[in-house]
Design a protein that fits this description.
Largest sheet: none
Number of strands: 0
Oligomer: single chain
Shape: elongated
Number of helices: 3
Order of helices and strands: HHH
Distance between the termini: 36 Å
Length: 96
């Protein structure tokens, strides 16, 4: 598993598999990225400016949000398959 997959799976795990929560977290990542970008531009150039890369950053965060929702589905399916194996009363003993 590469680092992006692992980080996104951990995000899904932290949000307990909720796609709404992961989407909100990625939106907050985007807001903080914009604040950081504006701070750096102001510190270097003295003013904030618009540039051509903003739509690509927006598309990247939208794509990452969709990827995070996919990993929520993977997390929920793994959680459901583990619940089927363990049952409501905990792990079942193998029958002889």
């Amino acid at each position: 598993m590469n680092k992006i997959q692992q980080a996104t799976f951990r995000l899904a795990q932290a949000c307990d598999g909720s796609p709404i929560s992961t989407t909100i977290v990625v939106m907050l990542f985007y807001v903080m990225f914009n604040i950081f970008e504006a701070t750096v531009e102001t510190a270097i150039f003295g003013k904030r400016f618009e540039h051509l890369l903003d739509p690509f950053f927006q598309l990247a965060f939208i794509g990452y949000s969709a990827y995070a929702v996919y990993w929520c589905a993977v997390f929920n399916s793994a959680k459901a398959s583990n619940a089927k194996l363990s049952g409501p009363n905990g792990p079942q003993e193998k029958q002889r």
